[in-house]
Amino acid sequence: MGQSASKEKFGESVQALIKVDISADDADFWDELWKIPSSAEEVFELIPPSAARKLRDDRFENLATLFTQAVAQLCQIVETPYSIYFDQALNCVRVLTRVLPFLLEKGDLGDADENVEQLCWGTGSAGLGNDEKIGLMIGGGAEKKEEGEVPMSAKIANKNLDEDQQEPLALLVVHACMHMLFLPQFTCDFYEDSTLPKHRPAVDKTIVTKEDKELRAEVGLREKKVEWGVPLDPTPTSIIWAPGVGVTATELGFDAGTRKYDVNRVEVLRLLLACSCDPLYSPADEYNPLASRWLGVATAADAPNAICLFYSLLNTILNYDPRAMPVTTGFSEGNHVKLVELSTQVLCVLLDCGLPGTAEPVSDQNGKEVVEFDVASKGGFNIFRTLMARIDTGRELTFIYNGFSRLLRNVYEAEATYISSRRLECFQELLVLFWKFSEENPLFVKHALLRCNINEILVPICFLMYRSRRDPSQIGLVHICTFILLKFSGERSFGVALNKQFTKKLPTDLPLFRGCHTDLLVITLHKLVVNGAYKLVPLYSCFLTIIANVSPYWKSMSLVAAVKLVNLFELFSSPKFLYSGEFAYRHLALLLEVFNNIIQYQYHGNAHLVYAIVRRKDAFGQLASLTLERAQAACHKVYGEQTSQQKNVDAAMKSMDAKAIPMSNNNAHDDASQNSEVVGTPFYPTQEWLEELKDSLPMEAVTRLLQHLVPVVDDIVNKKSGVVDEQEILDVLNEITMVGLLPVPHSIVIRKYQPNQYTALWFTAFMWGVIFLRNQSLPLFDGECIELFQVSLDDHDE
């Protein structure tokens, strides 16, 4: 059958399913349907969203038969993986990939349709299980027919749904996916036992280096011994797709990291992603990371090949090098890029549900790494999160970090004309994955800061933030970059590492400067404030907190960064900002803390900042001497008699994302929530407000600095009759000692990221939003019924 003829035949079959009832006994129709060669593109084209919903709503029995037979055939191919049936199995995979999201629209996280519930999770006890036709295929109603009367399609299904083992179709399709991802000659190589050692050990985790022990001790991890447990070693290691974490190239043996199965892996991974999409149909305010039964099946301790799948996905992602292939690549390379991108999405989804894993190593009496049985049997246990948290060897942590840095550097290397590098589009998913490692593996952050060059991650993050600052569609990207910087800025090692000289030339209009990576960070964040989208307003306190966290360790500030910092002070002390809300002055408190940290702890080497403060002395003086009368007059001059909605627009914007600002010790959450309370009530400076402002702003160090240095600088200028080289002033400022003139140095305050349910929900919504948008060439999901986030549908969409 030619390609056009097969496409036409498949289209006719789809129309028949939509328009008339097709008996489950009609073996000719069903057998022919599965044998029609159809590409994924053809399946998606011939089953548009309207047709899928019409099939679900008007011909549910047809859909149930279609779904059940497809699942049964996947179970059959897992049991008897003969290559002559692979094409037919792929047809089933493609059809299931297309229809499953529309079933899940009516799943228990969506509209909770009883028929969908019984089809996916029933075992024949009620509902459709008692239907004479469909019940045969899901294990129920068999008593209504003699054995000789059971149709062929039902026999196929019942062979895989034995009455003694009646498992839900949802579980069967998820397990079939996880089996098919390691099916011999379909998605992995198969070796006879005689060609491999009888017992191929996984990576020997009993070999621990001195550095590994020191790192574990620093984090406070102590090994626990149990008699028995659920093993965490990948078995067999030879089926893992690529070397890296959990398995070395030597252990993989033959043709390690082969790409010849990429096409089939992509097809099955796409189906697994479709099986996992029910969070899309849960309203954000009702979302529960433990609620998805589909994901619960995929991440359970007994999920087939789960350990091998975790290492396969992770190693496939982190082994990829965009620089290894030129921009103009062949078909096979394109398939591998698809595999890398889809692997990133699937791994993010599998790591986003259930409960966090515990990083504490647990081993059995044989020294093998395990999970305790009582832990593995708890509701919400996630084998993937446990595996991620348990990665603890220096070799593997370095491999992970190097993979992330190589892939994230691609965001600017691909735009550099002197580097031939294929552009990787899944950088947002990579950032989500990087975040999850940073959140749940305590050794990863420490290792990245102490054993690796963290600036290799900082530079692409700053580049992405700088480039995306004015694009409304990239606000989420700026958010996740901000959260990563906020988390890392809470570590002293991060601030120290940023003193390394910045020498790269990024393909953007970044101001030229000679300085360190802290300069790059501050210049980037300054640009986001003064030239960013208005929706970034809720992140201003995060930006300033990041700068405040790293400021005590900033050894030498560039002229450009010094000017930018003082410009920020002038901006936030201007009447427009200062009187925009009752708590707007807290931005100034953070900036003054930055100045105090540098003046008190890094005075020598930061003459540029000191001179910039001296030159803008009026801005500091006006704030220090602010009176109620001046404040009220300035507020009235800027805002007049405007309505509260106009005056408190900043506060309203802050309240939008308040709960997603994950900071401790800096009152960011309080700022936003209190601002949201005043919407509807005009803000007007009061004596109480002024007293609170003055109590909150640490002006003493800057005031004393100005009292001592302003006369010195004025004297130099007067002696030169107003014509003076700035370098001469900088030299004088460097030589002056402020010992005994400044207040007693304050304690360094570091504000650490604090996880909460709102940031977790934000990451889930962001991740699924990215996945939704990145799967539009083959539209895996339809936006009409998505509840987790808002989808703006074009008028031309169906």
From TrEMBL:
InterPro entries: Hid-1/Ecm30
Coiled coil: none
Domain of life assignment: Eukaryota
GO cellular component, one term: Golgi trans cisterna
Family matches, as PANTHER family: PROTEIN HID1
Name of the molecule in the record: HID1 domain-containing protein
